[in-house]
Amino acid sequence: MKFGVVVFPGSNCDRDMQDALQHDLGKEVIMLWHKDKDLSMFTTEDCIVLPGGFSYGDYLRCGAIARFSPMMQSVIDFANKGGKVLGVCNGFQILCESGLLPGVLLQNANQQFVCKNVFIKHQDEQALKIPVAHGEGRYHADEATLAALEANNQVLFRYCDNPNGSIRDIAGICNPGRNVFGMMPHPERATSPALGNIDGRKVFEILGLN
Fold it and tell me: Is residue 96 classed as helix, strand or coil in its secondary structure?
């Protein structure tokens, strides 16, 4: 499996993601510019990553402008054909704006930017320590959408101690086809022994991207 990391103007976690995938997980990584469209070098067994940051300065809503970039049109087509797509933080926001994932990310409940380590859980597995850094990470969806997410087991991660007020403690979800993943915490910041935390590697494993 190889990875493509999309670079938007304002991305600030693209190189973190590249480093984590290449050096810590030993994956092949191709950096993709937001104005390009070509994804012909990837198969549906590969993964496109939308990294964290502040795409297009987060003007309008977070991710609202990035959703219309030339590369995102190709990413949407790639996902609809079954290709794997991972959106982290701002990338999660872009996935929701593009309609690849349901719901929306709203301003944190305390109206403050939060930047710290938090603990998240996948089902009944051991809690994982993963950093968050966002001002608009409060996941919200209507009751029908939430019911569908729960019924289809699409809630991948929940906060153990909710840092932003997300409904039902939701930290990450996937689409019904289980090939599009979005999460606010940053697993790429927890893959290196030098940082004293490799819980992020378990996140990639859970997503089937290891």
Answer: helix
**For residues 66 and 43, what is the distance between their CA atoms, to the nearest angstrom?**
23
Q: What is the DSSP letter of 126?
A: P
Active site residue 13: no
160 is a catalytic site residue: no
Q: Are 135 and 148 in contact (CB under 8 A)?
A: no
What number does CATH give the domain 2-202?
A: 3.40.50.880
Say if CB 119 and CB 92 are below 8 A apart.
no
Q: What is the pTM of this model?
A: 0.95
For the stretch 164-185, pLDDT in tens is 999 999 999 999 999 999 999 9
Domain boundaries, the chain: 2-202
What are the start-end ranges of the H helices in 67-128?
Answer: 70-80, 90-98
Q: Are 173 and 101 in contact (CB under 8 A)?
A: yes
Q: Which of 13, 47, 89, 174 is catalytic?
A: 89
How would residue 59 be classed by pLDDT, with cut points 50, 70 and 90?
low
Whether residue 158 contacts residue 120, with contact meaning beta carbons closer than 8 Å, is answered with yes
Nearest Cα neighbor of 108 from 94, 95, 121, 89 is 89
188 assigned to active site: yes
| Given the residues 47, 62, 97, 188, the one annotated as active site | 188
Q: In this predicted model, what pLDDT tens digit does every residue of 61-92 receive, in sequence order?
A: 677 778 889 999 999 999 999 999 999 999 99
